[in-house]
Amino acid sequence: MINHLQDTITLNNGVKMPGFGLGVYKVEDGDVVIHSVKTAIEHGYRSIDTASFYDNETGVGQAIKESGVPREELFITSKVWNDDQGYEQTLQSFETSLKKLGVDYLDLYLIHWPVKDMYKDTWRAMEKLYEDGKIRAIGVSNFHIQHLENLLADCTVKPVINQVEYHPHLTQVELHTFCKRENIQLEAWSPLKRGKLFDDPTIIDIADKHGKTPAQVILRWDLQNDVVTIPKSITEERIIENANIYDFSLTDEEMNKISELNKNDRAGTNPDRYDD
């Protein structure tokens, strides 16, 4: 169990990854993202999740440089975007991300979406980058079971992570079970469903009992479900609050009550769309 902000989980290739981090989706490049990342690092975060599509890798890199924390103590994730998929394009896109971030290697590189007839070539490129020592771990994002099965059929390196939309309205039970069986770590994006869960009576009731916020209860639920989570925030108060989830535990009954809120309802795109 993760008991501290800097505690790690061990991925299927032996690499250790913090169980909690900062996401920077839709965080503006420049001062805003620099402030957000530096604030998070200052308050003990060690995992930062970005993507070429977010268009803020330059700011993230600047924040890393200015943080004063040695590069090897940080865990940096980026992703290859849909337009850059395919073998050669992925290799080029990776180098662009590395340059923008101003780092020599990435800790984790993900395929952002399972673009039909593309993602297997993309994966071959990522396997090469991994074998060349430019990435410590490779994984996928937004993959359904069928996409994973297709990839696993002939890959030489197994994905370490599947980063998907995951929250109490979208518990992804079958996918989570499949990933556990295959030793692929599930990671949550949009864990708070963009704030749409904060007025849920069940979550409010549990939060009141623990003297916590609805956001903290949801993030604790992730943690106790063995799901790595990367909530986004640009305010210092919220960045601190999101990580203040290690001093309480949810009971089995509370965990079940939250899981029962599932509606299979997405805030983002269904990955099936990329199979058209």
Automatic annotation (TrEMBL):
Classification via PROSITE patterns: ALDOKETO_REDUCTASE_1, ALDOKETO_REDUCTASE_2, ALDOKETO_REDUCTASE_3
Start and end residues of each NADP-dependent oxidoreductase domain: 33-262
The entry's keywords: NADP, Oxidoreductase
Gene3D superfamilies: NADP-dependent oxidoreductase domain
UniProt entry tagged with the keyword NADP: yes
Protein family (similarity comment): Belongs to the aldo/keto reductase family.
PANTHER family in the cross-refs: 2,5-DIKETO-D-GLUCONIC ACID REDUCTASE, NADP-DEPENDENT OXIDOREDUCTASE DOMAIN-CONTAINING PROTEIN
Record's protein name: Diketogulonate reductase-like aldo/keto reductase
